[in-house]
Structure formats: structure tokens, C-alpha cells
Write a structure and sequence with these properties.
Oligomer: single chain
Number of helices: 14
Largest sheet: 11 strands, parallel
CATH class of the largest domain: Alpha Beta
Shape: globular
Helix content: 40-55%
CATH superfamily of the largest domain: Luciferase-like domain
CATH architecture of the largest domain: Alpha-Beta Barrel
Order of helices and strands: EHEHEEHEHHEEEHEHEEHHHHHEHEH
CATH topology of the largest domain: TIM Barrel
Length: about 350
């Protein structure tokens, strides 16, 4: 099992993660990841940190597909890959309807269809075998109904690699299956090593469609972000994870349309999820945080003193994931994880 580092996205103020990134690079971490929601973007900090590191791969977890047409994402990835000497990992995802329609101002559409077309277009651009043409449900290139002057074009820059690794962030069964079918890796959120069996059917469906003997042992990278909170007081450590779980389960989506709420229900926490969402959507955020079960935190995060984390890490090492992306801003937690896992 390899290790990655996810520095996330900025909150209200910029955060300089250079020292953290450089330490992960020194410790032999496989990858460094940035994120975006509707604050800092994923690409700018990634390039900044890539320039300050030497060997570590750099990835986006995630770039929102609806914020960028696939040609722009392909151009961005090819550029970063050239600048870093082949260290780019392209993490993409659908985001959710609230952000897509409320922030980017575009219809949410069909995320599985969009992702399939997106991946196909990016791969065609990097290969440079012919000028780009694609006529699908989400993307029409060259587009009809415009000036009529559009023509198929080929990427001017010659990519360092004709196939840059693509990771798909996926939650539901169809999107997870699509990741297994078309992508090089899967970026799960709130992954539990105890529930890996619940995803196996979806993954196997995608591997079967891919053909060629593709499975979890043939280089497909399952790379969940796992929050790491190091400290002597287990309760205090868990309490640092609960605000994030409450936000996603309770507020990252509307009632009846919240993917993260669905994950909690699938894991057996339906009653708690209902309570968290009801509290969060009525503005009772502190109460929503308090309603997050300790057991759920322990399933999806590593919290407490070194000895406890070491004990719980064994389940992660044997569950089938290939890269554990550590969600932490604590350099001591980073060093501990390197000692325990690398």
C-alpha cells in the first residue's frame, strides 16, 4: 500500500502547504493531491507545490468536470505533465448539483454519460492520432449551431505521455463501475475497509466491460482519502473529523439528493444520517456534528495515539486499496504514517 497526501482546498484564507508537501516528497510518498469546491481551485496550488517538490506525483482530487470542458482539462494535464517530467495524475469528478448548478451555472446533466465522454475526449487529445471530433450527448466537437467556422483541431503541444493516468471520483454504482471500466484509478470518499465488499459488485461490473483481464490486481489504483488525526485523546481527535462528516452528510446536497448521506445509509447509519441531515438543514450545525457516530468516524478515519492508529491500520493494508491518501496538515502525523506504512 502506497501513501499519498491530500492538502484539500483552502478555507477562508490561503494555506502554504509547501513544507508539508516537501516532507511527503522526502518520505517517499507516492502522490500529492489538491482539491476544489467553490473556493481555491485545484490546479493553481498543485502547480505551485509541484514546483517546490522533486519526485512525488501530483494529482487533482478533484477537478470538477462541469467547471471545464474536457479539452481544457486535457491541455492543463498535458502542460503540467510536461512541466513536472511526467508526474501528473488527472483526478476528475462530477461534484454535486448544488455546486454545479448553483456555482457554475450549468445543468448537472447525466454524470456517468458526461464522465464517459470526458475520458474518451481527453485520451483522444493526448494521443494526437487525428484532429479531435466527438459528437455525444454532453459534448459536440466541433459544435453544431455556432458560427459554422469550427473545425477539428489537434493538440499543438506534444504530450510527454500519450496516456496520462486518469482517476475518477465516484460514489454511486454506475459511476464506480465506470471508473473500473475506463479509468486508471478510483478516488472514493468516506471509504471503509470493513465495507469493501459493498463495492466489489460495482467494480467487477466495470472490469468485465473493460475486458482484457482487468481487475484490482492489474494496476487499477483504489486511492481513498483517509483523514489522519494524531493525538492522545481519542474523543478530541474524532471531534476534528466530525465537522467534515456532518457537512457532507448533512449539507452537501438537498434532502433526497445527497450522495454522502447515501453512503452513511449504505454503511448502516441510516438513523444517524437522517438526524444529522435534519439538524444541519435547519441550521443546527453543532448538534449535527455531535450526532455523528464515533463508530462511523472510526470506519473512515484514523484517530488517536500512534498505537491505536497502528492497530487500526492493519485493516487498511489488507482490504485491497493500493494508495492511502492521507488527509492531514500535521507533519508529525505524516511522519508517523510513513513509519507505519512505508
Amino acid at each position: 500500500m502506497r501513501l499519498g497526501l491530500n492538502v484539500g482546498y483552502w478555507g477562508a484564507t490561503p494555506v502554504d502547504n509547501v513544507a508539508l508537501a516537501q516532507e511527503a516528497d522526502r518520505l517517499g510518498f507516492h502522490s500529492l493531491w489538491t482539491a476544489e469546491a467553490y473556493g481555491s481551485d485545484a490546479v493553481s496550488p498543485l502547480v505551485w507545490l509541484a514546483a517546490k517538490t522533486e519526485k512525488i506525483n501530483v494529482g487533482t482530487a478533484i477537478m470538477q468536470m462541469t467547471a471545464r470542458v474536457p479539452a481544457l482539462t486535457a491541455m492543463t494535464a498535458a502542460t503540467i505533465d510536461l512541466l513536472t517530467g511526467g508526474r501528473m495524475l488527472v483526478g476528475i469528478g462530477a461534484s454535486g448539483p448544488q455546486v454545479v448548478e448553483g456555482w457554475h451555472g450549468v445543468p448537472y446533466g447525466k454524470p456517468v454519460t458526461r464522465a464517459r465522454e470526458y475520458i474518451e475526449i481527453m485520451r483522444a487529445i493526448w494521443k494526437r492520432e487525428a484532429p479531435l471530433e466527438h459528437h455525444g450527448e454532453h459534448y459536440d466537437i466541433p459544435c453544431a449551431g455556432g458560427s459554422g467556422l469550427g473545425k477539428p483541431l489537434k493538440l499543438i503541444a506534444h504530450p510527454l505521455r500519450s496516456s496520462i493516468p486518469i482517476y475518477l471520483a465516484a460514489v454511486g454504482p454506475k459511476n464506480v463501475a465506470l471508473a473500473a471500466e475506463l479509468a486508471d484509478g478510483w478516488l472514493p470518499i468516506f471509504f471503509s475497509p470493513e465495507r469493501v465488499g459493498s463495492y466489489k459488485e460495482w467494480l467487477d461490473e466495470g472490469f468485465a466491460k473493460a475486458g482484457g483481464g482487468k481487475d484490482m490486481t492489474t494496476g487499477f489504483d483504489i486511492a481513498p482519502t483517509v483523514h489522519i488525526v494524531l493525538g492522545d485523546d481519542v474523543t478530541a481527535c474524532r471531534n476534528q473529523v466530525k465537522p467534515m462528516l456532518a457537512l457532507y452528510i448533512g449539507g452537501m446536497g438537498a434532502k433526497g439528493k445527497n450522495f454522502y448521506y447515501d453512503i452513511a445509509c449504505r454503511y448502516g447509519y441510516a438513523a444517524a444520517a437522517e438526524q444529522i441531515q435534519a439538524l444541519y438543514l435547519t441550521g443546527k450545525k453543532m448538534e449535527a456534528m455531535a450526532a455523528v457516530p464515533d463508530a462511523l468516524v472510526d470506519e473512515v478515519a484514523l484517530c488517536g495515539p500512534r498505537e491505536r492508529i497502528a492497530e487500526r491500520l492493519s485493516a487498511w493494508k489488507t482490504c485491497g486499496i493500493t494508495t492511502m491518501i492521507c488527509g492531514t496538515s500535521d507533519i508529525n502525523a505524516l511522519r508517523m504514517m510513513a513509519e507505519l506504512a512505508l
